[in-house]
UniProtKB/TrEMBL annotation:
<dbReference type="InterPro" id="IPR033658">
    <property type="entry name" value="GRX_PICOT-like"/>
</dbReference>
<comment type="similarity">
    <text>Belongs to the glutaredoxin family. Monothiol subfamily.</text>
</comment>
<dbReference type="GO" id="GO:0051537">
    <property type="term" value="F:2 iron, 2 sulfur cluster binding"/>
</dbReference>
<dbReference type="InterPro" id="IPR002109">
    <property type="entry name" value="Glutaredoxin"/>
</dbReference>
<dbReference type="GO" id="GO:0044571">
    <property type="term" value="P:[2Fe-2S] cluster assembly"/>
</dbReference>
<dbReference type="GO" id="GO:0046872">
    <property type="term" value="F:metal ion binding"/>
</dbReference>
<dbReference type="GO" id="GO:0015036">
    <property type="term" value="F:disulfide oxidoreductase activity"/>
</dbReference>
<dbReference type="GO" id="GO:0005759">
    <property type="term" value="C:mitochondrial matrix"/>
</dbReference>
<dbReference type="InterPro" id="IPR004480">
    <property type="entry name" value="Monothiol_GRX-rel"/>
</dbReference>
<dbReference type="InterPro" id="IPR014434">
    <property type="entry name" value="Monothiol_GRX"/>
</dbReference>
<keyword id="KW-0408">Iron</keyword>
<protein>
    <recommendedName>
        <fullName>Glutaredoxin</fullName>
    </recommendedName>
</protein>
<keyword id="KW-0001">2Fe-2S</keyword>
<dbReference type="InterPro" id="IPR036249">
    <property type="entry name" value="Thioredoxin-like_sf"/>
</dbReference>
<keyword id="KW-0411">Iron-sulfur</keyword>
<keyword id="KW-0479">Metal-binding</keyword>
<dbReference type="Pfam" id="PF00462">
    <property type="entry name" value="Glutaredoxin"/>
</dbReference>
Length: 132
């Protein structure tokens, strides 16, 4: 009885949120994450980003020299289930979201920080996803 009183309110709401992603959505996100070495879930497309954070993330990846043949982007605005599902999948509340070799790297703020401190360049080089 007391456990429920001591549990933070957001935890129970979060547990409810996690129940909404269907098996089909999870499978489609799994397939998307595996579709290329570098995968970005974003608002809009690389050619026409629909928000400043997505635009900046695309610019950072281009500046870093990510090989276009090793890159895939998914527009979360085209599918409401994808837009909500990717947040649950990664346990990250915002879009864009970057995956490198099937591992979640982070959102815009993390990508900017990694770009500034050089760790993004190191990661991209280590994972062999740069233009040769």
């Amino acid at each position: 009885m007391f456990r429920s009183i001591l549990r933070p309110q957001f935890a129970s709401a979060r547990q409810q949120f996690f129940r909404f992603m269907s098996k089909e959505v999870r499978q489609s996100i799994d397939a998307a994450v595996k579709s290329a070495p570098v995968v970005l879930f974003m608002k809009g497309t690389p050619e026409s980003p629909a928000c400043g954070f997505s635009r900046n993330t695309i610019q950072i990846l281009g500046y870093q020299g990510v090989d276009p043949s090793k890159f895939a982007a998914y527009n979360v605005l085209e599918d409401p289930e994808l837009r909500q599902g990717i947040k649950e999948y990664s346990d990250w509340p915002t879009v864009p979201q970057l995956y490198i070799n099937k591992e979640f790297v982070g959102g815009h703020d993390i990508i900017v920080q990694m770009s500034e401190d050089g760790s993004l360049a190191d990661l991209l080089e280590t994972e062999k996803v740069l233009v040769q």
